Amino acid sequence: MDRRIYVIDLAIKPEDLFSERQFNKHKEMFSYKSLRSTRKSYLYWYPLILGSSYIRRDKKDYFASEYIIPQFFMHWLHSRDNTETSSVGVRYFSCASIRASKFGYNYAFITSGENISNEVCYCNKLNSVFKWTKPKYMMEFESIESLQDTLKNDSNIQNLNDETFT
């Protein structure tokens, strides 16, 4: 099974580009030669980034309207991809809170429609790409880096399967 997943990164915030310090911190993300040309290109993408940054007023509301634009964009990308071998995803920054927007990102992926099994209704293709651990709580760690180190050294990282749920 081909494991290619392409992710369009819409998680670039305005402050990442319009602050010299932030731009230099994330410079490897940008393929442009100058800050000016990067900013100009960013302005073309900004309406899509803004549309992916909607903050729901009532978090208890059943309808999650903040996911509409990223999902439409992802489906449009998928419809333009003529190969059945790759998957497309979109990464955008979290709008759950100011703190979450600094630490977390949201990802949206198209599923293949092929489940792991009749009992486990997770996408077989995405499952083959991602590894899973038991949940870890960020509050138990000193920093994101220490959490990442713990995850890298976790010997129980695995793909999901029927036994995972027993």
What does this entry look like structurally?
- The chain has 166 residues and is α+β, with helices and mostly antiparallel strands.
- It has 7 helices and 3 strands, in the order βααααβαβαα.
- The protein has 2 domains: 110 residues, no CATH class; 51 residues, no CATH class.
- It is 37% helix and 10% strand.
- Strands 1-2-3 form a 3-stranded mixed beta sheet.
- The longest helix is centred in the N-terminal third of the chain and has 17 residues.
- The mean pLDDT is 74.
Main sheet characteristics: 3 strands, mixed
Q: Multimeric state of these chains?
A: single chain
Q: Compute the number of structural domains.
A: 2
Task: Output the helix-strand order.
Answer: EHHHHEHEHH
**Cα separation of the termini:** 26 Å
